[in-house]
Design brief:
heterodimer, A: 771 residues, alpha+beta, Flavocytochrome C3, Chain A, domain 1, five-stranded antiparallel β-sheet, 36% helix, B: 247 residues, Fumarate Reductase Iron-sulfur Protein, Chain B, domain 2, elongated
Amino acid sequence: MLKKKLTYSLNYRKPKAEYDGSDELMICIRYYHKCNKTNKTKIIKKSTGIKCKLSDWNIDWHKTPDRSPVNSTDPDFKKKNKMLKDKVKKFDLIKSLDSPSLNGFSSKLNSKLPPGPIDKKWINYKNSIDLVSPANKRNIDIIVVGTGLAGGSAAATLAELGYNVKAFCFQDSPRRAHSIAAQGGINAAKNYQGDGDSTYRLFYDTVKGGDYRSREENVYRLAEVSANIIDQCVAQGVPFARDYGGLLDNRSFGGVLVSRTFYAKGQTGQQLLLGAYSAMNRQIARGKIKMYNRHEMLDVVLVNGKARGIITRNLVNGKIDRHSAHAVVIASGGYGNVFYLSTNAMGSNVTAAWKAHKRGAFFANPCFTQIHPTCIPVSGDHQSKLTLMSESLRNDGRIWVPKKIEDVNKIREGTLSPTQILEENRDYFLERRYPAFGNLVPRDVASRAAKERCDAGYGVNNTGEAVYLDFASAIIRYGKEQALVNGQDEEDKVIIEKLGKEIIKKKYGNLFQMYEKIVDQNPYETPMMIYPAVHYTMGGIWVDYNLMTTVPGLYAIGEANFSDHGANRLGASALMQGLADGYFVLPYTIGEYLSKDISTGPIPNDTDEFLNAEKESEEKLDFFINNQGTKSVDYFHKKLGKIMWNKCGMARNKKDLELAIKEISNLRNEFYKDLKVTGDKNEFNEELAKAGRVADFLELGELFAKDALKREESCGGHFREEYQTKEGEATRKKEFQFVSAWEYKGEPKNSVLHKEKLDYENIEVKERSYK
Amino acid sequence: MKLKLKIWRQKNSDSKGKIVDYDIDNISPDMSFLEMLDVLNSDLISKNNEPVSFDHDCREGICGSCSLFINGQAHGPDRLVTTCQLHMRKFKDGDTIYIEPFRAKAFPVIKDLVVDRSAFDRIQHAGGYISVNTSGNTQDANSIPVNKEDADLAFDAATCIGCGACVATCKNSSAMLFVGAKVSQYSLLPQGQTEASRRVVNMVSQMDLEGFGNCSNTGACEVECPKGISLDNIARMNRDFIKAKIS
């Protein structure tokens, strides 16, 4: 803990003697604090914005009983003294100053955490946020980039509140954003199952699941609003799965011991996105959202240090436009496609987020990437993307590889089928290593365990990179249950199998069909083959409690920000966070900023700042079109993906990361020298759009590797081979209990690291164990 | 595999298009149809020709971006899949494959195989929502039980991905399956009742305005729908529409 002291002082800019009694000086607050450990005193001086004449200043203010520094000779002395006291009160409450933030931690990162006990913070804060009146809201414009769960729900809610919203997506309709592909479900602490779930438990599971690398306050708020999301979505007509009593059904997901996941078969993301899309449609019909489909954001425009607009390109005709607004919200998703092969959509990209970073928004924890354990393995070089098999499958599927290496060889030769391998010759490695959670360990743990088996030579396909996900025992279990219900023979294998398969089909039908179409094998008869693949990025733009970035007026929500999942995200929590940010958090917290902007008036879009940003974007496009190279965009993207996967993938080490940094930097140079883009600027040109996106991935990739190199510990999705226990479990380090936020300084190699300390007051930081 | 491709090329919405022939070799049966087009495009780029434009994004059959009329069938020969999930193992070595955009008056071509389906968005603006504020201050999600059969039917209708295969397949370019699915989802749920009449009337009139044809009940749309949306949804919409008109 800290010892601290607050004093008032005047801000002298020259020797005291040179001043006259009638000179007005700024009053400052000096904040002394001393760290018990180092015993060093630090002083923060902060201007109060209140001025006082030298003659009215009471030097001995601390001797007066009410401790007021402005003398009664000043006509406004009462007002000024009161204002000063208020400032002190506010200042004292800022938590980032209470923590030893200046002890190696950055003063540029003020997370603006509200005071009070954790379960009251959000409620109290929400009640104290300045409101914008309805009459003023209609004079305020907000830009939302991206229309997935976060962007779509934010655009709809902001418009509903009365702001003028301009929403942008690169797809041909906002309904196609990649949130649509989320399969398994959405978490909410409803405790409908009566299994002991609560806000605190969801909060606890999320912080623990994130390996103690997320901000307590944000996660608690997320857990708090989670129940509202379900109410909201049901009211919107989202057809969640129900039981025969007509009530909502739940399932379990990895890393938790309760059933809190709401779902709509394997299409939960689709149904929730269509819900948000319908809310947008309502506002589009009211004229409160202006929707720009097939538009890509190329840059953020800052005016006097504040985000005031964006530059876009119309993907149909190539037209560049300047859009101004009072605030800009980035909701453009994650950057998993830096790996080329991922479960992200082909168009998912980092450009909006990266452009925000280049304009001053710090980028946090870029190396925290989620590798999802259950994806369909890579089949060949032609592969353009990877397909996820929902985590919900691990409710009923058991993961295994053969125990004997000779069985593995026979499977690869095609002389043995997995169903012929006896039970005792199978290694259910998750159940073996983690008896408490079994097949439902969190994603990072499951992925690493699969990699460990495959690295040891037990991979079950020709590439050696696949394990089995087997439903045979679930089919028998369900079949027996159903036979009992039906009064049929529980020993009749044919009946049991038939009944069991029907139940599995009801639960996971669309996933099984998807698997069969891609792999050409029937998963009801033979176990699925799966392997981990890049799926989600926990890292993203750094935001404070208000979800504002380090650029005033620039916000980041959903997967695009870093805030809630720490070093690993639990299943079914991405949908929860996207909708929480968009429906229930940002629409309130943005008022804190916009309430000070009500008299600004419309923002002109023809100032120098806009024209220069437009020119820069145009020049970049011209460069790509005119570059006389020989290689396609995909060539570079694939090459970058290989470097990322091999050197910054599931396991990382110092040597490889250093190599990766060098290789990516060289590849970037080659890209600018040897890139070829066909077609023209003023037309539909996917190659040109891709070129811009890959250019940004080539910068992000290097920062990613640099971040992974600097984080000398293993935690969550970030596994450094140097930091592991004898059993191969991750070794976390107390001294890395912070958020890495990178400040852009030209090339990624020059980026400056800022640390935000993470304190845990409501959860005991423990070794994360699922055994 | 070696294939002959006959692909619709059109520079932009104002110019005339035509079928252009391409030969392609070394196609693996494990490739998806779009990966086959990726191979063609990288070949075209290396020869300094413009690649073929087509819409695609998630490549797992859910976003509804991909389209393509392949050998006269929306999303190609396989059943219940989108083009991105169609694999080359459905074709034989030496096959000739015709690839065209989804054609309808209401879906103008933007370039090559890319069409403008924003008419679907506008139909939804006309009523594809429940008027409830997004404040979260609604009643508890379990306060209105919903019959499981109805909830499941609503879900089945809601799985429509808005790809437009029904329109492309229909000889009248009708969007009834798409609109029927959306109307049904809400009309099957208690939450959608309040605005049911207004919704169906507004959405149908917007559909007519966009230039989609009428339904003559051939059922081709249901057959080609990658998500298996049932014709029952059209019947339900018609019922709701008549109910709204006479009440």
